[in-house]
Amino acid sequence: MAVTHSIRIFVVVTLFCFSSAYFGTEPKRNDHCFCQLKGSIDECGCSVDTVDHFNNKKIYPRLKSLLQKDYFRFYKVNLKRECPFWADDSRCAMRYCHVEPCLEEDIPPGLKGRHLRELPFEEDMSVKYTESVQAEDCEVDHDDDLGYLNTTISAAAYEEFARWKEHDDALDNFCDINSDDDDAQYVDLSLNPERYTGYKGKSAHRIWNSIYKENCFRPKNSFNSYIASSKLNGMCLEKRVFYRVISGLHASINIHLCSNYLLSEKSTLSFDSVTGQWGPNLEEFLLRFDPRKTEGEGPQWLRNLYFLYLLELRALVKAAPYLEREEYYTGNDQEDEDVRQAVKDILRVVRSFPEHFNESVMFTGGSQARKLKEEFRQHFRNISHIMDCVGCEKCKLWGKLQVHGLGTALKILFSGKFDGVDPTGADLSHMAKSQFQLHRSEIVALLNAFGRLSTSIYEIERFRGMMR
């Protein structure tokens, strides 16, 4: 047995040396993207390996199942809004850029219209204060001596109330998606997956250049679109966090495109005569993240993805008591119950993570901190508007969805409405739901955006395996 074992070792060592000699520096190449992707994550205490194991073993499988449910599959979005910053002359003409909205009969019945369970009040006030309803409640609504008292509320007044509410919401919101626009339509995300469509070139570069150069906080004498990691330490914590968030989102989207890359097109006998084949493209991944092709920054961009993952993970923890109370109503009683239980299971796992991002150390220090916080919010709102300038419909859909989800996470962390909510899941029955209201579109975007980050980290492991 000892002789056999020695022979096996000799064979393995010989093959390794032979492969190194034959391929030159190739074994070392395998470390280029990932050798720096180790150790603790910037601004956080936990390590990359800890997040990898936690996500790939516990979070990713659960999210993958949950996000296939109707409540999270159908996202209402307006893809027809014009670019507010420049003339949009770069519409993607490729077949894979197109998004097919849902037909009316495809939408779950519980998502059509505005369900009473989603209202922040106990009942629909526009019904309560109509003249006919009041007439039923009161035998007389005036006193002959005092004169007539009209207690109805006019339609114009309701419009004014809506404007007040929109103004109040805008003070807390970090993005402007307007899923309730007249032109907004439901889209089935499962039928319009995020993947490489061929959209690239000046139009795509202009989007990210505008985001980085015009909306990210920047150190002095920084002229590239991205900020070199060596210069980040010269910025305050809040500005570093903003950049890492945007850089992490950019890295995540790039990973999605590399893992679902258009590898080939082939003819078929169907009416749609050309169909695509998608899959992982290792060379494209290396082009975007190999330090030798990115002036050494690629691994840092991947680290920023992990940072964003921890930030959104913390938002889920902070909003967990609220999310556990949500009904996730679609009209399908059995599936709705399954979703409620699945969400509770994911939140239980999320709470178990040992080291979360600490948002309490940000925006402290009086009026200057409040001013910086408002700048932070306005910069991110601008980025949400830039999403309307994306020339590819499918890219716009997933860009708006992920920015919406990230904006919801920032709202949870920094608006103040969730401060004092016990993340351990204390009884909230004494608190009015309107005190920390999230709309359905925000919940859908929040979970789907976190699902995209989770998928990115899972795909990194697959690319790591391909490089080995």
From TrEMBL:
User: Does the keyword section mention Transferase?
Assistant: no
Q: Name one GO cellular component term.
A: endoplasmic reticulum membrane
Question: A Gene Ontology molecular-function term?
Answer: thiol oxidase activity
BP-aspect Gene Ontology terms: protein folding in endoplasmic reticulum
Q: Which cellular compartments is it found in?
A: Endoplasmic reticulum membrane
Q: How does it assemble?
A: May function both as a monomer and a homodimer.
Protein name as catalogued: Ero1-like protein
This chain's source organism reads Gryllus longicercus
